[in-house]
Design a protein that fits this description.
Elements lengths: L7 E6 H15 L4 E5 L1 H5 L3 H10 L4 E4 L2 H9 L6 E6 L5 H6 L3 E4 L2 H14 L3 E8 L7 E2 L3 H9 L4 E8 L9 H19 L6 E5 L1 H6 L7 E2 L24 E6 L2 E5 L4 E2 L5 E2 L4 E6 L16 E4 L2 E4 L9 E4 L11 E8 L2 E3 L1 H8 L3 H7 L6 E5 L2 E6 L1 H5 L5 H19 L2 H16 L9 E11 L15 E13 L4 E7 L2 H9 L3 E6 L12 E8 L2 E2 L2 E7 L2 E7 L10 E13 L4 E6 L3 E9 L5 E11 L6 E5 L3 E24 L2 H6 L1
Parallel strand pairs: 1-21, 2-3, 2-10, 3-4, 4-5, 5-6, 6-7, 6-8, 8-9, 9-10, 23-33, 25-26
Antiparallel strand pairs: 1-11, 11-19, 12-15, 13-14, 15-18, 16-17, 16-19, 19-20, 21-22, 23-24, 24-31, 25-30, 27-28, 27-31, 29-30, 32-36, 33-36, 34-36, 35-36
Helix pairs in contact: 10-11, 13-14
């Protein structure tokens, strides 16, 4: 018998999905945008792969039910707009902003809270406004909408991109759909009269796409039809749709029973004649519902076999007496086509008195998805990935526990394993579990010189300080269009800057003098990808001196690798005689140069401490001028690394004698 890879599996035919998209585009035309609905894991088909295929076919955006679904798409690499079609909770706002999702607004309370978070983060966000024209669920009531929308337009960090409603009975042609249409158009006309223009209007789901062409407006929202299922029998002549999903398993056991044998729990089926019964490794735990007991059918060798007995959590029994050539290992189709026979989602829904949406979302909950393209396996998505989001809060505790246990086993000591884990965790993520950032090609040049210009003393030797010009360069993933550079006066303030995800760079002022003056700390230049970035404002606050930079024009660079350049002018006391550089992020490739030409600094030496495979940098010295440390661009340096430069002051005795 041929070895089988899976107990059961779901096949998702991406060619059929693309076919349905061509039918969709034929119906709506090229000018109408398409929002592909991928909520509930794309109706059970696999949201990540379906989303990628929809975007390749021209989808303008994707629709999900909540922030969690949007996050899963974002962490899989999807950058297209993702609209949350249901009302969001306050607890989802942080993820909505963090992952650039577009919420739908149904009330002013959530809109105001969203505005508060956006202002704090220094970003703006598009939104869509939902109108309740008769569905009775989400959305604001038509009569209340104009006043609420006017207030939302007054929120500076919110950009209203779309307005929509949802039809209650779009799969059939009834007067109620026309009533909802009239209410929606009357509202949008009233908003236009008020001078409120909203670019994208949409209301057509699958039923309305098929039944009401004039409801297409600026954008449509196909769900069920894109997966090859007609919303009602009356729409079947309006589009040639092909089912995308099949649910399959295999025969794992065959038995011959005499008449009078009971099959399954509670003896709900008793054989009336000698019967051949096949056991399938699928049950209600896989979404094949108990309600199909003694009334469902499956396909084996192109023929129908009835479900007999009560469906268990993990097994189902079928009568194959009429299929004498059935063997262990035979493919079994629970939903889909085999030969000339078909069992559709609608067929199953009719049997159990539910809707096809319910069947699609439930079937194969534990099964991997096998994606087919041109008849061949394009990709296999394990079920684990469908419930595990790598970068989210609820998954982190699980990851942490696994890593910690690995250290315990490897160290052969629970105590030592924990010590290693927590030391590593704090080094990489800090005490507050900050987001891990990776930087590469790090360049750090410190130029120590005598004060110049307004900083220069009236007489030589009067100044107690050196001028320090620091030029920093590195490559990283850009995360915030508006960011700050912080100057702290003590360790507590420095920790506060580390807690702020908008803080791009932090500096600890050596003498702790506050408030900070321009001569103490000045950001001379900020550049992103060789383009100057403006300083928006500077201010002394309770946590230190803040220099805010950037602007919304940088949003196009988000989530991309950029080259950051900073030039900072500060000072250090002559009597201090050391300067330290610390690395707080994992860094690949490092150059640090300490320049002191033209100063009384002498006998410069370095004390370096680098964590990584190459703890000893290459060192180049030019006596009287500079000292240079380098770690190759393919070598990693980890946090809690750095170097301290120490020196003597050849002119110190002369200064003291004056």
């Amino acid at each position: 018998m041929k070895e089988q890879a899976y107990r059961s599996w779901v096949e998702v035919d991406l060619d059929s999905f693309t076919w349905n998209w061509a039918e969709l585009r034929r119906l709506v035309g090229p000018a109408v945008r398409v929002l592909q609905v991928v909520k509930a894991d794309a109706y059970g088909h696999g949201a990540i792969e379906i989303s990628h295929t929809a975007l390749k076919n021209g989808a303008a955006c994707l629709g999900v039910a909540n922030a969690d679904e949007g996050v899963q798409l974002r962490v899989s690499g999807i950058t297209a707009p993702i609209i949350i079609l249901s009302p969001s909770t306050g607890g989802e706002i942080r993820e909505i902003i963090k992952y650039g999702l577009t919420p739908s607004l149904s009330d002013l309370l959530f809109a105001s809270e969203f505005q508060r978070h956006l202002a704090r983060a220094g970003v703006t966000s598009p939104v869509h406004i939902e109108i309740d024209t008769g569905m009775g669920r989400g959305g604001m009531l038509c009569e209340e909408a104009p006043a609420i929308i006017r207030n939302i337009f007054g929120l500076p960090n919110i950009a209203v991109e779309g307005i929509f409603t949802h039809l209650a009975s779009s799969e059939v042609c009834v007067d109620y759909n026309e009533q909802q249409w009239s209410l929606f158009r009357e509202l949008t006309d009233r908003l236009n009269a008020m001078g409120i223009s909203i670019p994208i209007k949409h209301m057509a789901n699958s039923g309305a796409i098929l039944n009401y062409p004039r409801f297409h407006l600026d954008m449509v929202r196909p769900g069920l039809m894109s997966y090859g299922i007609h919303p009602a029998p009356s729409t079947e002549d309006r589009a040639d749709l092909r089912p995308v999903m099949s649910f399959k398993t295999r025969v794992v056991l065959l038995k011959e029973f005499p008449a009078g044998a009971s099959i399954g729990y509670n003896r709900t089926y008793v054989t009336e004649r000698p019967s051949r019964i096949a056991t399938l490794p699928v049950g209600y735990g896989d979404g094949y519902g108990v309600i199909l007991s003694n009334q469902g059918e499956v396909l084996i060798r192109g023929r129908r076999a009835p479900v007999v007995g009560r469906i268990s959590m993990d097994m189902t029994t079928v009568d194959v007496s009429a299929i004498p050539d059935c063997h262990i290992g035979d493919e079994v189709v629970l939903m889909g086509r085999q030969g000339e026979e078909v069992i559709s989602a609608n067929d199953i829904a009719v049997r159990v008195r539910t809707i096809s949406y319910d069947i699609l979302c439930a079937l194969g909950k534990r099964a991997p998805r096998i994606f087919l393209q041109k008849g061949k396996t394009d990709a296999v998505e394990p079920r684990l990935r469908r419930i595990f989001i790598p970068h989210e809060e609820r998954s982190r505790a699980r990851i942490d526990g696994m890593i910690r246990q690995c250290f315990q086993v490897r160290a052969r000591s629970e105590e030592l394993g924990d010590a290693i884990f927590y030391e590593m965790f704090e080094a990489l993520f800090g005490k507050d579990d900050r987001q891990l950032e990776l930087r590469s090609n790090f360049r750090y040049e410190i130029a120590v010189s005598e004060p110049a210009g307004e900083e220069a003393p009236e007489r030589e030797g009067d100044s107690d300080d050196f001028r320090v010009t620091t030029r920093i360069e590195y490559t990283k993933v850009f995360r915030n269009p508006v960011f700050l550079i912080g100057c702290a006066g003590n360790s507590e303030q420095l920790s506060s800057f580390f807690e702020d995800p908008l803080c791009e760079y932090r500096w600890l002022l050596q003498d702790g003098h506050f408030p900070v003056r321009d001569r103490d700390f000045r950001v001379q230049r900020v550049r992103i990808d060789s383009e100057d970035v403006p300083v928006i404002r500077t201010e002394n606050t309770g946590r230190g001196y803040e220099v805010w930079c950037g602007g919304e024009y940088l949003r196009e660079k988000l989530s991309r690798q950029v080259r950051v350049e900073l030039e900072i002018v500060t000072r250090t006391a002559r009597s201090r005689r050391f300067f330290s550089v610390y690395l707080v992020y994992p860094t690949r490739g490092l150059d640090i140069t300490f320049c002191y030409e033209g100063t009384p600094i002498a006998s410069v030496r370095e004390v370096s401490f680098f964590a990584g495979r190459q703890p000893y940098p290459e060192i180049t010295r030019e006596t009287g001028r500079s000292i240079h440390l380098r770690i190759r661009d393919d070598e990693w340096v980890f946090p809690n690394s750095g170097v301290t430069f120490l020196w003597d002051d050849a002119g110190s005795e002369r200064v003291k004698g004056q």
